[in-house]
Write a structure and sequence with these properties.
The protein is an alpha/beta fold. Helix content is 46%, strand content 9%. Bound molecules: thiamine diphosphate and magnesium ion (MG). The site of thiamine diphosphate has 14 residues, from strand 4.
């Protein structure tokens, strides 16, 4: 399998450190009442960033669940900017402008898995060269959408990569109550596609697995299901108290395998990272998240945009609702 080279590993680590740093800032901003609910990325960085670095941003689509946006820096600044708008409640905030091939965050578990298959199938019908990678959690894999989409993708040989991030929890539900299967990857067997489990704390392993899956997909061999095993190091969201259900010994074991700390250590040993580089990256990451936050905060919230991204043009009923809404809040329809 293709391995990331030293330069790529440096870029991967940089994106992982940026994601961890920005997640910390967002957590604090939420606690100050300045931003809405946040789902921390801590523990998922290697799985997300390793996967995304195996993709081609110009041709390949990413469909995130909700924990991924801070790890998608490779796709450009628009991802973070729209994520901040979305977090602050802008109706169109999740809509990332073309040509960035990142779909809006998906809160409805599993719902983006059929979208990914439809998108991938459409791309192959149009002879487009890319692939679609869809992120979802161990919890989302229990949705009917996963089984329906996986089955259809197998039959169609759609160029899609199913990336299940198994972080051992779906809020407070542990994996042994989520499935009786040996692994989440084993579910691929029913779809007639390859399924593999990789160490999601090691970005190189995830990179290799996604590269291989991408090669399969682009050569017409169809989908792959990858399970990346990680441990959720933070709370489910800012609305959760994990100390009520996460065993502290499990958490401290997982902290010893923290993907960001592990890679920093390895890269320093190889003289590919330094404390100076670390603080330079952290400072830039904080400036960038503050800039995105300020930009979103200063964007006027418009109720008029509530329906802008539902259909190409309003249905008759939507037009009536739009006029009513505009009239009631005194906002112009222009
Ligand atoms: C269809 C649906 N059912 C229930 C929920 C409520 N819910 C939000 S997050 C979550 C847990 C998801 O776990 P997982 O897919 O493993 O992702 P993780 O949060 O662990 O990254 C649940 C049950 C939802 N958002 N959508
Ligand atoms: Mg989970």
């Amino acid at each position: 399998m293709p391995k990331p080279n030293e330069k790529q590993l440096q870029m991967i680590l940089e994106d992982m450190v940026v994601a961890r740093t920005q997640a910390g800032r967002l957590w604090n901003l939420q606690r100050q009442g300045q931003v809405g609910t946040i789902a921390p990325i801590d523990g998922h960085e290697a799985a997300i960033v390793g996967a995304v670095h195996a993709l081609e941003t110009e041709s390949d689509w990413v469909l995130p669940q909700y924990r991924e946006p801070l790890g998608l820096r490779k796709y450009g600044p628009e991802v973070l900017d729209t994520f901040m708008l979305y977090n602050l409640g802008h109706p169109a905030g999740g809509h990332i402008p073309e040509p960035v091939k990142v779909a809006p965050s998906q809160i409805s578990l599993g719902a983006s898995i059929p979208h990914a298959v439809g998108l991938a199938w459409g791309m192959s019908l149009k002879d487009e060269s890319g692939v679609v990678l869809v992120f979802f959690g161990d919890g989302a894999s229990s949705e009917g959408d996963f089984y329906e989409a996986g089955n259809l993708a197998g039959v169609l040989k759609a160029p899609v990569i199913f990336l299940c991030i198994n972080n051992q929890w779906a809020i407070s539900t542990p994996t042994h109550l989520q499935t009786a299967a040996d692994s989440f990857a084993s579910k691929a067997e029913a779809f007639g596609i390859p399924g593999l489990t990789v160490d999601g704390n090691d970005p190189a392993s995830v990179y290799e697995a996604v590269s291989e899956a991408r090669n399969r997909a682009t050569s017409g061999k169809g989908p792959t299901l990858i399970e990346a095993t990680v441990y959720r190091l933070g709370a489910h969201t800012t609305a959760d108290d994990p100390t009520r259900y996460v065993p502290s010994e499990d958490l401290s074991d997982a902290q010893k395998k923290d993907p960001v700390h592990t890679l920093i250590h390895e890269m320093k040993e190889r003289n590919l990272w330094s404390d100076a580089k670390q603080s330079e990256v952290e400072t830039a990451a904080l400036e960038r998240i503050d800039e995105a936050f300020e930009k979103a905060k200063n964007t006027p919230l418009s109720a008029n945009s509530l329906m802008d991204h539902c259909f190409t043009s309003d249905t008759e009923r939507q037009s009536r609702q739009r006029s009513f809404l505009m009239h009631s809040i005194g906002e112009s329809n222009e």
